[in-house]
Fold:
Amino acid sequence: MLKSLLATRRFILACVLCAFSQLAFAQNASIKIQFWNALGGQLAVILNKMIKQFNQTHPQYQIVNDFKGDYNSLLTSLVAAYRAGQPPAIAQVYEIGTSLMLLERPAIVPVQQLMQANGFNVTPKIFLPAIGAYYSSHGKLMSLPFNSSSPVLYYNKDEFKKAGLTDKDVPKTWPQMQAVGKRLLKAGIQCAYTTAWPAWIQLEEFSAWHNIPYATQDNGLSGFNVKALYDNKYVIRQVATLNKWQHSGIFQYGGRGDNPQALFTSGHCAMETQSSGSRGSLMSIVKFHMGVAEIPYWPDIKGAPQNTIIGGASLWVMQSKSKAVYKGVAEFFNFLLKPATQLEWQKATGYLPLTMAGYQYALKRNFYKKNPGSIVAVNELNNKSPTAYSRGIRLGNFPQIRDINDTALEAVFSGQSTAKQALSKAVKQANKYLKRYKEMADAGS
Amino acid sequence: MSSIYFKNKTLPIVLILPQLIITLLFFIWPALRALWQSAFISDPFGLHHHFVMFRNFTELFSSSSYLYSFWITFVFSALVTFFTIVFGLLFASMVNCITRGKRIYMLLLMWPYAVAPAVAGMLLRFIFDPAIGIAPFVLRHFGIHWDFNVNPYQALMLVVLIAVWQQTSYNFLFYMAALQGIPKSLLEASAIDGANSWQRFWHIVFPLLSPTTFFLLVMNMLYSFFDTFGIIQIVTQGGPANATQTLVYKVYKDGFVGLDFGSSAAQSVILMAVIIVLTIIQFRYVEKKVHY
Structure:
């Protein structure tokens, strides 16, 4: 009895194994390429559409959309997977992780090298200048820029109308913001202005937009021996001004990251500075007429406005995959860089065009004319040709430094310290982290 | 009672082996790894290692934000432990007195414990959201401007409130069981001797509950140290200006957001030491005052 049972079990096991190997064989027909990303919600829908299109036109490959949560969790998973010897072929890493990925050179395949090995001529020069430079090292493209954004000013047209204001009154400068804010408050609007991503927009982008050095070594783009410089009088004034406005009701602090979004979408605040990449989702959420404008500047700072820098993420290719997989990755990247694909991506999301060709293509098809908000971030980015301090900011331990800066801003807005105290403390703390990073980079394995 | 022992030495070893392996694999081994890691500054991918001896520790103790985390953790766990014990005991004694609908009350009071911390955090975050929440709307009528995104005290209060709301159920449950174990004869005897209800509670019930109180003291402290991570992550992410950044949350932030494994490991070693010391103190000194 037992023997026959065992025999049956063995038979079933054999059948299952057989079925599995059949399955594996069937799938071997197309090469699977894991694509780890942090694009959820509406972005995932668009990404899926793009991947489906690629898989259908390239049946020998199968790109697998693997959503890993937010950028933080993705990077943590990537570290764990790398240590376990199972990294994905493609991983999306946010811009503040760029310095880290450059340090982990043995773990990655530079994108330029990969593309050229597979017959695609991709260099930093084909991209918009600010985008290509940011993801390059020694003139070579290291990762594929994918979703790049810049901050813009979104405003509630209905509330502007209520206060007797038109599109022409949207503040171009920070002093104008105060005047417009007062009028909005008078008309019964509870809060004139809030900002998403406070440290990114009010410190990093603010510095580039006014051509103020953020850190030594060309904002960290030229080396690891970096010191933070953002405790200067202009940044201090900006933070102090926001704090002053908070007391008069013009500005309201709504937390970090995307948290302040609710203040704007609910109609509580009439204006919000937020990533251009949120345009698509904002348009589908808000019930009012929404306008998009350039972020304000201080007219008394020489050379302002300069140009904005990019946020967002890029795609990194990991080591230790087969040649066939790399060929597939190169094909996929080539597909992503096609002007038509980029136009789709811009249309649905509000992210920037990546290549010059993509920008021209969209221009020719009157995309920017038909979608007035979509050109704003492109204009900001191309406002002037980038200087050493407006090409981007690339720091080691950047996630911690951004956290330190958010903390400093909160210390100001909660009345615990002045803008000057908070920022000089933040710079001191940031310098400690930069020093740690340099030591690590120097150490080698 | 005669002691029982195994003649065969291998059998007991085999019997405790599974537990031993689990302890070694999931507790001792990671702890040793953390100790090892804390002596290095290293990159997340494990390609660069820089030996720094104790510098990760000295840097922590010279960092104001770390010392602030210590203080916040102390305040937070003291508040949570105190209020959960007070409310747990209060509700248990009250429910113990009533005769009708006892079960309904018990059920309702135990309910919050079944809610996952993340869900509890989300719920109360919505209720207290400065822009769309109902609580700030009500508070405005009392002249209180509620905005936990900016006000550090309100943020800490909110996190304490959620933790207390959840953990009170646990305390209630244990006090309820303990109260039912108190002999009626003692209470009746003291009542005959003329003790009023407060005296009966303070001189008889409370001392008899001391083993439970001691147990809950330890459990509540451990809870507020470790299990409140979910609430903090959902509601404040440690902000504003680190006002709700407990030691555990900082370990997570430096380790998993910042990917600074050296400092994060050093922090978890310190945390381990703190817990060991606190537990020793509690068992050495506080337990002496407990009547079993």
